[in-house]
Amino acid sequence: MATTKAARAAVKNDLNTLKDDLKTLGAEEKANLREKAGETEARLRARAAEAEARLREQGEVLRERARGYYDTARVRGREYYDDAQERLDEAQRYLTERVQERPIQSTAIALGVGVVLGMLLAGRRR
User: Fold this and answer.
1) Distances in Å between the alpha carbon of 126 and those of 112, 114, 118, 120?
2) I need a labelling partner for 102 at 20 to 30 A (CA). Which of 11, 36, 75, 88 fits?
């Protein structure tokens, strides 16, 4: 029976030693994992900073390109506006000349157009 008690005590002692070793190993692994996680986090932060810098640069390039497109569109729009204004002025001069050449005919046409529009608008009210 003494042998059994001694064997039990030895097994119990071995189990306690194993338990302590596992705790030590767990703590060491935990520290290793924290260290690796810290290194990985530092690498990720560096890559994120690089990506952010590249995105900022690309954003600036795109902003400048958009600004160029805007300026081009503004210039073209101004040209189209000026062209349309010139054509409108020509049409107005042409109309004024025709009315001055034939005032009675122009008045009769304007009266006819007014009557037709009046009849159309009056018909819609009914």
Assistant:
1) 22, 19, 13, 11
2) 88
CA angle at 11 for the pair 9 and 16, rounded to the nearest 5°: 90
Question: Rounded to an integer, what distance in angstroms lies between the CA atom of residue 87 and that of residue 74?
Answer: 20
Distance separating alpha carbons of residues 71 and 29, to the nearest angstrom: 62
How far apart (Å, rounded) are the C-alpha atoms in residues 26 and 20?
A: 10
Q: What is the pLDDT of residues 26-79, one digit of tens each?
A: 899 999 999 999 999 999 999 999 999 999 999 999 999 999 999 999 999 999
Q: How many CA atoms within 13 Å lie on the side-chain side of 122?
A: 6
Cα distance between residue 87 and residue 81, in whole Å: 10
Three-state secondary structure call for residue 95:
helix
